[in-house]
Write a structure and sequence with these properties.
Length: about 400
């Protein structure tokens, strides 16, 4: 017999009315006493549906304004739906908004006890777990300090520490990793692993695709209140990155943004890079690559003059502009031969994909000479891009293979 899902969201719809015209002057109030302020309608959720099974770690991702937090607040009962239905079967505990449930004029000691009571612990149980909460948050020296004097990082550590002490069946967590230092984020990761082993149900809102791929069984991607994709985390992560970077590219193009320090194209015209693309392990063109597989970048070149021993090169940049690969035939095969006017060729750079999940851009080039005497024949800045997805998250620039040995 199939078990009842822990969470069911069925065609959830939620809108907000945003006032944008107020009646300000006395004349307007006298002439139009019944006129109401006009308003825009924001459709935060547009028919979202999914189910979360018991014991499932479920990710909710999307860009800012996609409806993620509204969805969680509806599940928590903070907002009511306009249409559709939601069902939550089990004891619920939420971490949705920093500061909710805390009194800034009270010290941490009182806030912990009050918040624990609000989340369903008995007074005796709240007192018993107090030391564990403070120890996890690493706030032993600040327990009698009023919360209004806490930093946002200290406050989020305290709130998350209270949350994990509650024996809830279902946890709703919104962006706990967005605030806090690296060491606390690692403690959160360790706690997520423990929660996952315990069989509790978790709905996690985050922008961290590494966390989604590491912990979540499935995920949903939202955009403008609608479902873009519901399914495995690798696909959701790839689509999220694609959505994020394609929107950024459209915004830059509309604003006329370009990198002035690196023109889109350089060269004297003796060679022309006609096209460039990424290839998967089978040699097929692709815009998405799984981490760990063999792949390549290829570019087609046409010569407009006779050129002897040209150099072919490639730079590979991540979304932050870091150069992760500088490949050329300068050292491997500097005598590439003579190419006649009108001749074409494809040069290909193959490599093991040890890249971390991100979007990467290829800058191919054809040149003559070397060192200080290098002369561009053609150089195409960020000619093609590819999204790399992976199941092993890392904060390193590359996911380099390694062997770890323990010797006692």
């Amino acid at each position: 017999m199939q078990s009842i899902p822990a969470v069911v969201v069925d065609d959830a719809r939620k809108s907000f009315h945003l006032p944008h015209r107020e009646v300000h002057t006395l004349k307007e109030r006298v002439l139009h006493p019944l006129r109401r302020s006009s308003a825009d309608v924001l459709h935060a959720l547009k028919g979202v549906s999914f189910e979360v099974q018991r014991g499932e770690f479920f990710g909710i991702v999307g860009r800012n304004g996609s409806g993620k937090s509204t969805l969680l607040k509806c599940l928590a009962g903070i907002y009511g739906l306009d249409e559709g239905a939601m069902y939550v079967d089990g004891r619920l505990s939420t971490f949705i908004e920093l500061g909710v449930g805390f009194n800034p004029d009270l010290p941490a000691r009182d806030n912990v006890l009050l918040n624990a009571l609000m989340l369903g612990l008995s007074p005796r149980e709240a007192a018993r777990r107090f030391d564990e909460v403070i120890a996890f948050a690493e706030l032993e020296d600040f327990v009698d300090l009023k919360l209004k004097n806490y930093s946002s990082g200290m406050e989020v550590r305290l709130a998350f520490s209270v949350l994990i002490q509650v024996d809830a069946d279902i946890l709703l967590i919104d962006e706990v990793l967005a605030v806090g230092d690296a060491s606390f984020q690692q403690k959160c990761f360790d706690e997520f692993a423990r929660i996952r082993r315990s069989g509790r149900t978790v709905l996690l809102v985050t922008h961290d695709m590494g966390a989604v791929q590491r912990f979540c069984d499935r995920a949903i991607l939202l955009e403008h209140g609608e479902t873009v994709h519901l399914g495995d985390t690798d696909t959701v992560a790839a689509k999220y990155l694609e959505l994020n970077f394609s929107e950024r590219a459209r915004a830059d193009a509309a604003a006329g943004v370009r990198d002035e320090e690196a023109p889109e194209r350089q060269g004297d015209g003796r060679a022309e890079i006609l096209d460039g693309w990424f290839e998967d392990a089978d040699g097929a063109r692709t815009e998405a690559l799984p981490a760990g597989a063999r792949c390549a970048f290829a570019a087609r070149v046409r010569f407009h003059a006779e050129v002897r021993d040209p150099l072919f090169g490639l730079n590979l940049l991540n979304s932050r502009g870091d150069n992760l690969l500088s490949a050329s035939n300068l050292w491997s095969a500097p005598e590439s031969g003579t190419f006649a006017e009108g001749e074409e060729l494809v040069f290909r750079v193959g490599f093991e994909n040890i890249l971390s999940p991100d979007r990467y851009w290829a800058t191919p080039a054809v040149a003559r000479g070397g060192g200080a005497g290098l002369a561009w024949l053609d150089r195409r800045e960020r000619l093609a891009s590819v999204v790399v997805t992976g199941t092993r998250p890392t904060d390193a620039l590359v996911d380099m293979p390694y062997e770890l040995e323990l010797v006692r």
